[in-house]
Every structure is written in structure tokens, then in C-alpha cells.
Design goal:
Elements lengths: L8 H17 L8 H11 L4 E4 L5 E6 L6 E7 L4 E7 L5 E6 L11 E5 L5 E6 L9 H4 L10 E2 L5 H6 L7 E4 L4 E2 L5 E4 L2 H16 L6 E7 L7 H10 L3 E9 L18 E6 L2 E2 L2 H13 L5 E4 L7 H4 L8 E8 L7 E4 H17 L2 H6 L5
Parallel strand pairs: 3-12, 3-13, 13-17, 14-16
Antiparallel strand pairs: 1-2, 2-12, 4-5, 4-9, 6-7, 6-9, 7-8, 10-11, 11-18, 14-15, 14-17
């Protein structure tokens, strides 16, 4: 549904929320992004030319009034998850992490194992009752290598009968819902289904634009930004906007806050893997100011995004990261503010509509 077809603001908000919910609940660990890719394909198949890289990233190319510049909007489809590593004689499933996890957030959480043929087997990460914990155990974080998934089986044979095999991907299992405080949405995989949602929404709503836009749903970001490398070989970007669910820091114990829910999308200037193009950052800030959208700017000592792969493609690509702040990422449930998401969408539409050849060339004019 394009903006011209949306009758009112409430219909637009409902459209955006429906897509975000679909993306959030879909399972998509690294290397198993099939369910997310299907949603993206369905949403964009009438809005541009669809193609794929050989790792499974999906691209949608939408030509405007000019072949160039080629503007890439990248959101990674995968979420942090696991893979079946082994099965004990008593039917307990050991797992290897796919992406960065902290042991404190895992015990007694629900998961689903994605088996061949499209089936899903539900289970729970086992935990000891406090009654059985020694004092030393209470004070330590349990390593993932000591955890297991309980699917109700009591033997390895019963696990096999469920269709579970070594190497099967495992995803967190969580509902999507709005909290009782209006505007606050909770769900899993906002890192980075918010980025995928923004990419899709922008391509669906985009009217006249002086460039060619390539939306990328990249795979395997959480294990090394791999899909962004292979997708760039097809997208051939002249400029890139990486869309992320960026970690919010408006929680206790953090004082230098650069990502606060409800205060607008975040522009990431630096992390250990990429430095955003300075002129592109200023362009984003200026456009946001002109259209009355508040933005936050972040300089991070840790973390990384697909910008790490994209900005070094070819002779170099001016790249910026625009994120929707999300509390509690890399867990089973995160929180975003819907207004941050909607404002990011508005900002992206305005940015893309202004990225003509002259504007983009200024980002890399070094003489």
C-alpha cells in the first residue's frame, strides 16, 4: 500500500504496525531467514525487481527518474538464535549460539526449533529451581555450553521422532504486543526487524525519486555481517543507509544517554566497525531539522552493523546508520517506541527523495 492509497494517519499506523508484528514474530536465526524473506518478498514483489544473492539476502530494486545514484537501504533479516549441537541419551538438546548472548537472559525461556519441511518444535531452556541451587551457583552466570533445551522428550530417539536433527536452527519464541503505556511496543527481534520494516515501508511508499533505490534484506549480520558483503556485489551502492534496531541506553546505570525511547531515530556516527561519512551525517541532521523530526546522535565504543561491510565495498561507499532505539536487544523481548519508528520512516522518505547525483557526489568530493 503506497502513501497515496492510505486514507488517514490511523490507517498508515495500522499498516506499519501490522508489518512490524509479522516481522517480529517470524523466526529467522542466521542462515535460516526463510520466514522473514518470504514476508519481505510478499510485501515488495509489486514495488520493484526482486533478486537474491547466493547466501539468501533479498534485494528489491526500484528505479526512479535516473539510473543513479544507486541508494541502498539495508536492514538485516536475521536475529540472534542458536543451532542444535547435540542430543543426550535423556533427550536434552545442547545448542551453540548464533550471535551474541548473555547467559542471564536465557534460562526458562521459550524457543522453537525449525525442522526440515517447515515444521517447528517448541521447547524451553531448562533451569534449576532455586531450591536446588548451591550458594556459588546463585552468584554465577551459567555458560551456554552448560544449558539445554527441554522439548518434553526423555530419550534421544524421541527427539529424533520429532524431526529434530543436528544443525537445526533455533529461534526465541515471544508474542508481540503493545504495553499498557501507549506507544510502547514489545516483541522479539527488533534487532533488526525494525530495520527490515523501515526498508519495506520506504520502498512501498516511495513516489518520485531522482535515483535508483535498492532495498536489501541482508542475511547473517549477527555472525559477521556476511550477507551485506554478498548483497553489495549485486546492489553496487553509491550511497548507503543502514537501518538498525540500536541498543537504547535509557536504563539504570547508564548516564551518557544517546539512545532514549521516544526522542527520535538515532544517527550512529561511530562504532568499532565503521565511521559514518561525516557529510552524510550532516545531511541527515539538516533534513531532519527541516522537516521537524528530532534525532539523536551516537558515538559508540562497542557494537557493529552491516555498515562495516558496505562502507568498504569497491572504492568505498558513503554510509550512515539510522537506528530505532530498542531496550533489551539480544534477548527474548525488547521494547521500542512506535513514534521513533514512524519518524524514521518519514525521515527516510525525505532523504531518498533528495539524493540526486549532485547531492550524493558532495559526500565524496575531496579535492
Amino acid at each position: 500500500m503506497a502513501d497515496a492509497e492510505v486514507k488517514n494517519d490511523s490507517e498508515l499506523r495500522a499498516q506499519c504496525r501490522q508489518l512490524l508484528e509479522q516481522l517480529s514474530v517470524a523466526p529467522g536465526p542466521p542462515g535460516a531467514e526463510d520466514a522473514v524473506r518470504a514476508i519481505v518478498r510478499e510485501a515488495l514483489q509489486s514495488h520493484g525487481e526482486i533478486s537474491y544473492d547466493r547466501l539468501g539476502s533479498i534485494l528489491c530494486e526500484k528505479q526512479g527518474s535516473s539510473d543513479g545514484p544507486r541508494v541502498v537501504l539495508d536492514g538485516h533479516m536475521d536475529e540472534v538464535g542458536f543451532m542444535v549441537q547435540s542430543v543426550s541419551s535423556e533427550g536434552r538438546i545442547a545448542f551453540a549460539p548464533l550471535g551474541g548472548w548473555w547467559g542471564h537472559v536465557l534460562l526458562a525461556q521459550r524457543v522453537e526449533i525449525l525442522i526440515d519441511g517447515g515444521g517447528r518444535v517448541h521447547g524451553i531452556i531448562g533451569s534449576k529451581p532455586p531450591h536446588f541451587l548451591a550458594t556459588a551457583e546463585r552468584q554465577n552466570v551459567l555458560g551456554l555450553e552448560h544449558m539445554y533445551i527441554d522439548v518434553g522428550a526423555t530419550t534421544a530417539e524421541e527427539v529424533a521422532e520429532l524431526g529434530i536433527q543436528l544443525g537445526d536452527p533455533i529461534a526465541p519464541y515471544t508474542e508481540f504486543r503493545e504495553l499498557d503505556c501507549p506507544g510502547y511496543l514489545s516483541g522479539k527481534a527488533f534487532d533488526d526487524r525494525v530495520g527490515v520494516g523501515l526498508m519495506v515501508e520506504t520502498l512501498r511508499a516511495l513516489g518520485d525519486h531522482p535515483n535508483t533505490v535498492i532495498g536489501v534484506g541482508a542475511v547473517q549480520e549477527e555472525v559477521g555481517c556476511r550477507g551485506a558483503i554478498t548483497a553489495s556485489a549485486l546492489a553496487r551502492p553509491d550511497v548507503a543507509i543502514v537501518l538498525e534496531g540500536t541498543p537504547a541506553d535509557d536504563t539504570p546505570g547508564l548516564t551518557e544517554r544517546q539512545a532514549i525511547l521516544g526522542q527520535g531515530p538515532q544517527i550512529r556516527f561511530l562504532d568499532p566497525t565503521a565511521i559514518s561519512n561525516r557529510r552524510l551525517v550532516r545531511f541527515v541532521q539538516e533534513v531532519a531539522g527541516e522537516i521537524g523530526i528530532g534525532v539523536q546522535t551516537a558515538v559508540r565504543r562497542t557494537g557493529g552493523t552491516d555498515a562495516s561491510s558496505i562502507h568498504t565495498y569497491g572504492a568505498g561507499v558513503p554510509t550512515v546508520v539510522i537506528g530505532v532505539p530498542a531496550r533489551y536487544i539480544h534477548t527474548h523481548v525488547s521494547i521500542i517506541h512506535f513514534e521513533d519508528y514512524l519518524n524514521a520512516r518519514t525521515l527516510l522518505l525525505e532523504l531518498v527523495s533528495r539524493m540526486d547525483t549532485e547531492t550524493v557526489s558532495r559526500f565524496t568530493r575531496f579535492e
